[in-house]
């Protein structure tokens, strides 16, 4: 276990230098800044940064929207409230258990006229663009990630962590990102987000796509409260954001 602990700390201290200690301490705190989106039938508590990121996807009632990795459902709930019962929202997750949890959350928090436009699916997000090309006005890809705040607070997950995990996740994240761009209409917006502090899972995914597909997308303005600007996008880190996050986000417009 001590070897894994050193590996974890060395991995992230290499990225954050002297700041790693304060960031580590903030993530170990159990007091995350949580609240519930407004206007729900019953509260659904989320990190404020998660609510904020879902509110930044440019959508209007009537749009066709995809929440590519939607469970457990908090961001989908935010998107549904913004669509006001008009248009279509596809909320996707491969796990049957997580889909059922999401379905319950939607049913318990939203009136029927708002949730009626939601379709829950269980497809492979990394292959989505092969089957529904140029279909969506806007896509939220809140990608599976290292979730370091969860890892560092779980003795079990912390003990088995290794650098191979983020490496595997980066491959999955990139395939989902590229798939999302295929599924997006020209002029549409992709909001890519993670709750990871690993730059390799955040802006490096975007940089890789932009390098391999020049001229296919451009970064659009995304402003997050407490967000720290990166080469692409912004990141909210709990040591400087009153406990919020981590939350990385970047907004791209398909050309």
In words, what does this structure look like?
The strands form two sheets. Strands 3, 4, 5, 6, 7, 8, 9, 10 and 11 form a nine-stranded mixed β-sheet that branches. Strands 1-2 form a two-stranded antiparallel ribbon. The protein contains eleven helices and eleven strands. The protein has helices spanning 2-16, 20-28, 48-55, 74-83, 96-109, 112-115, 128-131, 148-152, 155-160, 164-183, 203-212; strands spanning 34-35, 46-47, 64-67, 88-92, 118-121, 136-142, 184-194, 217-220, 228-229, 234-236, 247-254. Helices cover 41% and strands 20% of the residues. Keywords: Methyltransferase, RNA-binding, rRNA processing, S-adenosyl-L-methionine, Transferase, Transit peptide. S-adenosyl-L-methionine binds at residues 69-75, 93, 124, 142. Belongs to the class I-like SAM-binding methyltransferase superfamily. RsmB/NOP family. Residues 1-255 form the SAM-dependent MTase RsmB/NOP-type domain.
Classify the oligomer: single chain
Structural class determined from secondary elements: alpha/beta
Based on DSSP secondary structure assignment, what is the total number of beta strands? Answer: 11
Round the Cα radius of gyration to an integer and report it. 18 Å
Strand content: 15-25%
Helix content: 40-55%
Organism: Candidatus Ornithospirochaeta stercoravium
Catalytic activity: a cytidine in rRNA + S-adenosyl-L-methionine = a 5-methylcytidine in rRNA + S-adenosyl-L-homocysteine + H(+)
Family: Belongs to the class I-like SAM-binding methyltransferase superfamily. RsmB/NOP family.
Keywords: Methyltransferase, RNA-binding, rRNA processing, S-adenosyl-L-methionine, Transferase, Transit peptide
